[in-house]
Amino acid sequence: MLFPEGVAIDGRRGSVEPSTDKYIKRLSDLRGLFRDEAALDRAIAKGDAIAYEVIDYRKSESDLAFGTTIMMPGKVGDEYFMTRGHFHARRECGEAYYTQSGEGLLLLQSRQGEVRTVEMRPGVCAFIPPDWAHRSINTGSGKLVFVWFCATDASHDYGAIREKGMRRLVVERNGKPALVDNPNFA
Ligand code: F6R
Ligand code: ZN
User: I need a surface site. Which of 16, 18, 149, 172 has the fewest CB within 10 A?
Assistant: First the structure.
């Protein structure tokens, strides 16, 4: 049987206490994601920085799960550090991303290929409708920390985004983030 509990989330560090699981993605785990592969190789050779960490509070007996994503600042070439991006395997499952600290952009793409963005800054809770792929991008100079909430069994479907990429990229132009067409979008 499950019992209620208070879970302490630190909005700056992104820690979740207690948590049920966590993982780290380094730049070397993100091969194929950035368009400048030579820049990625150089960054990996220079120390293979952590790009992001995900901490879960997920109980299989409950329909609701939440946790944090902690994204480091940085760029590969002119592209900011980003998450892999995914649809949910259960297409009827949406999600919410509530930004706690830092700044970024949430890039969303519907199954039909429509693209939208939602600014990520403290106080903004982004609504991710069902069947929209979502990728978060840290466009700031510090950590980007957000709390996410979704169905426990929403499950990730990475295939489409991994194979085709997303229609738009977020790159630095004149010191600022800019949304540009992805020349390699399949
Ligand atoms: C869960 C969710 C987030 C992401 C996390 C990492 O549905 O959207 O917890 O999984 O921000 O992003 P991905 O999984 O795209 O590497
Ligand atoms: Zn998701």
Answer: 18
